[in-house]
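Render this sequence as a predicted structure.
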Amino acid sequence: MKIKITIHIIILIISVCCLSVHAKEKSYPADYQNLNTQQKSLVAISSYTAQGKIPELNAALNDGLNAGLSVNEINEALVQLYAYCGFPRIDAFLKEHLFADVFESNVLTYLQRELITNAALASMTGVESQLGAHLFFGMNVGITEGQYNDMFDIIEKTVGETVANEGRTILKGLLKRVNTNK
């Protein structure tokens, strides 16, 4: 009888341990798979900047501040964007300025910078190859598929369904290639 009780206790302990380990593997912070409020604000700011929609950008800037972005973070996002959004596109200038000065700043993380860049590129037409490359770069710095899905949902609202779906198609092709190479 003691052996049966001991075996049942051991099985119970092992079951509880296995369940707690499994639960730990599946528990992520709420914003792990999706964009948090500040990241969503950065996407909207980037999209409206890329399109030159000033009234909507003003509202997005206020929303970003209300979401907890600092003035420095928003300023840094706009500095990041000027290379992609119709300002000087001279190759030497971009390499010299963007990669030397902008990426030296520690106001934004690399993940935030790639999110900003991807949102801007996804909001423009004719830059599909750059978008594909930056989607990949973003994955390398930790942007998840769920976060990209959120980004394209915002792009659908800020630009339109057609443009968002073009970006989703590029992402889908990239994910297929990445998963095939694993």
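Summary. Residues 10-31 have pLDDT under 50 and may be disordered. The chain has nine helices and no strands.
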